[in-house]
Design a protein that fits this description.
- The complex is a heterodimer of chains A (about 180) and B (about 230).
- With about 180 residues, chain A is an all-alpha fold.
- Chain A has one domain.
- With about 230 residues, chain B is an alpha/beta fold.
- In chain B, the strands form two sheets. In chain B, strands 6-7-8-3-9-10 form a six-stranded mixed β-sheet, with helices on both faces. Chain B has a four-stranded antiparallel β-sheet with strand order 2-1-4-5, covered by helices on one side.
- In chain B, α3 packs parallel to α5 and α5 packs parallel to α6.
- The longest helix of chain B is centred in the C-terminal third of the chain and has 18 residues.
- The two termini of chain B are about 25 Å apart.
- Classes of the chains: A mainly alpha (about 180), B alpha/beta (about 230).
- At the A-B interface, α1, α4 and α5 of A face α1, α2 and β6 of B.
């Protein structure tokens, strides 16, 4: 897992892009779940529609992320197979990369919500913006969203594992550009 | 049949065919050879003669269509992928023409990557990586990324990665193919030193005649046969 984190962080551009996408999706999905389950009544069918759209988008993006990870690193994985890594070792690495990115999205959402609550509470103490709720999204919808996102990642991991199996170690012996 | 303990690798009646654009290409034809422990073998021949296929088959990267590959006393010709991976991790070091270093990892991390899936502690892996980098005179560049190194330096790091696992055999596929003559000499002398110091068996595929002088024995190939 530590190696997966190291390799994820070194792929800065892809890591930042997908972490931000996950952050936005987790935030929006949590928000709509909060609205749908609020005692005052949510937006009805529209809210449910948005929740389904966000989960569908997260599934598509997770599959895309898994596909990109394997496609971009085929030569690396072939080399690792040549030097003695098993398919299981590489699958663990890929799973670590996928899960780590999802966890980071979750933590950023939690961090943003904490800061938001702190700022609102601070302003309220000075009688500024009184009436605005300090809790934008409660923890339960965020946790539910996160758990569903983790399940969605399993589909991505299955896809990645199938693709990793198809990477032949001999690919590492081919010349670059061949 | 008794196994000669001095024999590291033996190929018995090995054949391998490929299909390309509908045509059948006989890459290896009735190959019989044996390599003794501690030998430095150079495999030479023109492009497409089957020397890389032979290296792939002997190292367990590819399976022959028929015949046996006895590697350190075990027939690996029909072994499963995970068994072959384990053999490669425990007994084999690989060196590639294009170095195949991971560009997002430093030199020492690239060397360590060979042992990441093992049960060794991080400290032990780091110590071994540093020792391997010292062996190839690259210790001062241990925190550099591949993009910051010359071709010769990258190949030295790749050699360090190959020796960190203390392999019985090193397979080198055109190790000097992307290097200038001076770097080629340095790399081949380094391989020779590893061969002598650690008694590591080395199989080196090269189409360059200048490489031949570094080996104990030269195996010449043509049209999939040893000539």
């Amino acid at each position: 897992m530590k190696k997966a984190v190291k390799m994820t962080l070194r792929e800065k551009k892809m890591f930042i892009v997908f972490t931000l996408i996950y952050t936005i999706l987790i935030f929006l999905t949590s928000f709509f779940i909060q609205v749908a389950t609020s005692p005052t009544g949510g937006g009805g069918e529209t809210t449910t529609f948005f929740i389904i759209i966000f989960f569908g988008t997260s599934l598509v993006l997770s599959l895309l992320y898994a596909w990109i990870i394997v496609a971009r690193n085929r030569r690396i994985f072939a080399t690792l197979k040549c030097i003695g890594w098993t398919n299981g070792n590489i699958n663990t690495l890929v799973s670590g990369i996928i899960f780590y990115t999802t966890f980071m999205g979750f933590f950023i959402v939690i961090e943003v919500l904490f800061h938001y609550a702190a700022i609102i509470a601070y302003l309220n103490s000075a009688n500024i913006l009184v009436g605005i709720p300090a809790i934008l999204i409660s923890l339960v919808p965020v946790a539910i969203t996160f758990l569903i996102f983790l399940v969605v990642q399993l589909a991505a991991i299955i896809l990645a594992n199938r693709k990793v199996l198809k990477v032949r170690p001999m690919l590492a012996l081919k010349r670059v550009g061949e | 049949m008794p196994i000669d303990k001095d024999v590291m690798i033996e190929a018995i009646d090995v054949n391998k065919e490929y299909r390309r654009s509908g045509a059948i290409i006989r890459a290896l034809v009735d190959i019989n050879m044996s390599i003794k422990s501690g030998e430095f073998i150079i495999i030479q021949g023109p492009t497409g003669c089957g020397k890389s296929t032979l290296l792939n088959v002997l190292s367990g990267l590819d399976l022959p269509d028929s015949g046996k590959i006895i590697f350190d006393g075990e027939n690996i010709a029909r072994s499963k992928e995970d068994r072959l991976s384990k053999i490669r991790r425990q007994k084999v070091g690989m060196i590639f023409q294009d170095f195949n270093l991971i560009k997002t990892l430093t030199a020492v991390e690239n060397v360590e990557s060979m042992l990441w899936p093992t049960v060794l502690s991080n400290k032990e892996i780091e110590n071994r990586a540093i020792a391997a980098l010292r062996d190839v005179n690259m210790l001062e560049r241990k925190d550099h990324f591949p993009v910051q190194m010359s071709g010769g330096e990258k190949q030295r790091v790749a050699i360090a990665r190959a020796i960190i696992g203390k392999p019985r055999v090193i397979f080198a596929d055109e190790p000097s193919g992307n290097l200038d003559p001076e770097s080629e000499t340095q790399i081949m002398e380094l391989l020779k030193k590893i061969n002598k110091d650690y008694e590591t068996t080395i199989l080196c595929v090269s189409h360059r005649n200048t490489v031949a002088k570094h080996g104990d024995r030269i195996i010449k190939m043509d049209n999939g046969r040893i000539v």
